[in-house]
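Record 1 of the preview.
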Amino acid sequence: MTQQDRTRFDFSTLGERERYKLMIGSIIPRPIALVTSVDEHGSINAAPFSFFNCLSADPPILALGVENHPDMSFKDTGHNIRVTEVFTVNIVSHAIAEAMHVCGAKYPRGVDELKEAGLTAMPGEKVVSPWIKEAPASFECRRHVTLELGKSRQIILGQIVFAHFREGVVDERLRIDPDRIDAIARLGGDTCSTIRDRFDMLTPKL
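->
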């Protein structure tokens, strides 16, 4: 499989799990969204997603990669966004990493993961989904568009309509203090990382 000191893979010949392992082990670090949503009865759900990122500032768009159950039925987050068309992305700091992990357990539908994790649900300003008081930053979103990727996964694009930041995170010039965010990220497998080691690289001027 090696040629010119490279290990090569034809993705068309790999299984889903093999592709997954190669992708999550090399596309790193991936930010973690702790997504809060509600169902049609108002029950709160919270679930972490590392298939997540920002895609646009105009309009302000976030993207979530949402997987279905093995029988292709919707998991709670996908179901809730489908029926309410809103969700909230909460950034995961190191301080709430363990609580995020608790939210990722496979609870029966209807269980409030925030209560199980000891996190506080705060009422949304413009959407029905709550934001998490302990999170350093939270983004209320309305569903912009959903891309169906076969039967197993959706890409949900959400337009940010409101944001909450912990006091002291944003200065008067709208610069974010990364130390106060103290976000964590996913690597491969069960490994996570912090963003505490940083360096600056100025954009080249030609």
